[in-house]
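Hi F.,

I've been meaning to write this up properly since the lab meeting, where we talked about keeping a consistent format for the predictions we share between groups. The idea is simple: the sequence comes first, exactly as it goes in, then the structure tokens exactly as they come out, then a line or two of notes. No screenshots and no reformatting. I'm using this chain as the first example so we have something concrete to point to.
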Amino acid sequence: MRLYSVMMGQLVARTAVHVGAGTGRETTDDLCRRDASGHFIMPGTAIAGALRSITTRLAPRMNGNGVCRALTNAGGDQPCECRVCHLFGEVNPGEGASGRASRLFVAHALARLPEHASPRIRDAVGIDRQTRTSARESAAKFDLESLPAGTVFDLRLELEDANADDERLLAVALAEWQAGRVWLGGRAARGLGAFDLQEIRLKTLDMTRDEGLLAYLKTDAPDGAASIAPDWIERRLSEARANVNGQAAAVVNDPDVPRPEAHSFFSVAFNIDCEALFLANDAVAAARAGLDHAPLLDAISRTGAPVLPGASLRGVLRAQAERIARTLATLETEGEGEAAAPSFGQICPACDPLRRPTGDEQARDIPLASCDALLKGEVPTDKEVREAQLCLACRLFGCTRRGSRLRVEDARGVEGTRKRLDFLAIDRFTGGGRDGFKFDALASWKPVFSARLHLENPTAWELGWLALALRDLAEGMVTIGFGAAKGFGRARVESLIAQHGFIGDDDFVGPPELAARAPRATSGLYRALRWRTSEAAEREELLSMARSWVEEFHVKRRGFAREERLRLTKDTYFGSSNDPTLASVSTLYDREAYRCRMN
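Output, unedited:
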């Protein structure tokens, strides 16, 4: 070893964190990971895996790096020998020098919780798309232990015999983390595990000199004798930017497979202003307070701020996106004789992820059956599914067969006060209170939440679909949280800020002339443009782009059709004019007005 290098920093959690231990107990289904002394930790494997993943996607965008076999799913047992494998170790280790292990050593990161904070039990439940109540039949109820926002994990990385290419790759990945684009642990796509990397520093010790070697051998903490390398990330990042491949060839040439290499991202930050009462129920807090329903707070105290779980916001956006797509598809199945359109089961663009067969039912006979249910018996669970085998909703929001590139973080809120309310069911015959049907709730009054969404490698149709769902949220057409039928959860979107990052001009999802406005690199390897709806000119520019994305969504939706073996045999719950037992679609919507609105 010629040079000993150690990097130290802090991973500060923006949201709650869950690093699962894979075991539960009486109080929860899934505990957080602890070491032998009972301290909360993030395993080095979790950190190293996230680092390698982001480095593998970014490496092809830098000249001379090549493409790792892990990105192309190339078969065989031949060593890869790419630069990513040189740093992190071979994906196909074999005999000889080419099978060397990782040059990067990642220590377990010990957690330090904020003062007076403690772990929490987070509840989650799937919502039935038709009844809008908990999906009990699907057993979609579970809970997990989480560490609060503000938890700090002490990061420590050690490099041995690394060359300049290794340092450039690592600097690029750490720059992404400094920009806040890092999610670690479980449930990361549904609100948890968002981090910022802070106070990162590199210290080096020259092992070719006698004093350096002796300092290394005499102590278990040689970094104490090492010297700090100033502006290390900035210098290596500058070198990497000078070698960016703005028009990299596609890693995978199959149009049915999303591009796995990094090319762009789209993030949206906005405020959700609740118009009245809001409640995201925390069963554990309710039990402690002696209430039936109590709000989820970022800390168990009277001064704790309310939290809108990312899973709740994500569920609202997905459910509304599904309704938009299914409604438009249903409208297009109207007609008789020669004018008859394809059946809804053929062009259904969005399944219900909780609808699965029970008893003797067949998946294809269930309206809106989940993609997972339709794929059972067709594609083994250990095999990767093609995008063409999934509905559009599962491609964007994810499913049990494929993860999602969309991350919706927990939103922390600010409130003025809380109100306690009592509820009582009324007997329909006597007009008096019904015994045993009294409950109470503690709700937040007009809280304001700061929300954040991030979509990796977006396409125009995905952005258009999200824009439609966000527009409905912004206009107060959907509710969030508990008690929608009781007036809770009415909200609007305010102060939206959008950012589109892209590496090359061809990666920009919008008019090419706008891409030329972005500086060479403003966020890691990415060039970036920002829009604020509070500025009239920027708002109009963003809306103009959104309209073009919506048109791309309509094109994608109209061109969607399930494979014959995966088509539904029954129609949608929206109804059909061909089924006299169901309400006609024309009675549910002013069809032409709805079409115009969607366009």
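Notes:
The mean pLDDT is 82.
Residues 70 and 91 are 7 Å apart (CA to CA).

If this format works for you, I'll send the rest the same way.

G.
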